[in-house]
Design goal:
The structure is a single chain. About 75% of the residues lie in helices and about 0% in strands. The protein is globular, with a radius of gyration of 19 Å. It is an all-alpha fold. The protein has 7 helices and no strands.
């Protein structure tokens, strides 16, 4: 097979991500476009038929700004007002997840022989984009991305089923207040 030029490789990855994202939209899973695009581009990458995508200078920064903007626009005055009630759970959840991530990261490193940096970043609470980018800046982006991709896809596939089962069994959270 003849080598493909970097722009064509990038287009192939974009097409795979687009196809995966659009297919995933039909599943109804949360964050379907993200998970589908990740799977589509990831499967093409894992096939070994293409070299790693070579992004034009500044593209990743622009995409990071875009992701940050999308997330930032979900913050509102209403959400800020809810923080008055949610700050205690927010602190408890954050501290618990950071401690759990540290414990899991250290255990994976020591018990499974995983590089400590990969283990700690891979077990850290955070989104796949943020943690993968942090890992990339430290030279371990690919393995961190794999760990977070497995976590994200598993959570997106398993959590809706678990919630349906819990709600069907009559287990519901207590009413607020």
């Amino acid at each position: 097979m003849a080598a493909m030029s970097p722009p064509l490789q990038l287009l192939a990855y974009l097409a795979a991500g687009l196809a995966g994202g659009l297919l995933a939209l039909r599943t109804g899973i949360p964050a379907a476009p993200l998970a589908g695009a990740l799977l589509g581009a990831g499967l093409v990458s894992l096939s070994g038929r293409l070299d790693a995508a070579s992004w034009p200078s500044g593209t990743r920064t622009a995409l990071e700004i875009g992701i940050g903007t999308v997330i930032g626009t979900s913050l509102s005055a209403t959400a800020l007002g809810e923080l008055k009630q949610l700050w205690k759970p927010a602190v408890l959840i954050t501290v618990s997840l950071v401690v759990a991530g540290l414990v899991v990261g250290v255990c994976c490193s020591r018990l499974l022989g995983l590089d400590p940096l990969v283990a700690l970043l891979g077990a850290a609470p955070g989104g796949i984009s943020g943690m993968s980018l942090a890992g990339d800046e430290l030279g371990v982006g690919a393995p961190v991305a794999v760990l977070h991709a497995v976590r994200l896809i598993t959570v997106l596939l398993v959590l809706p089923v678990m919630l349906r089962l819990l709600l069907a069994s009559g287990i519901t959270p207590p009413p607020p207040g």
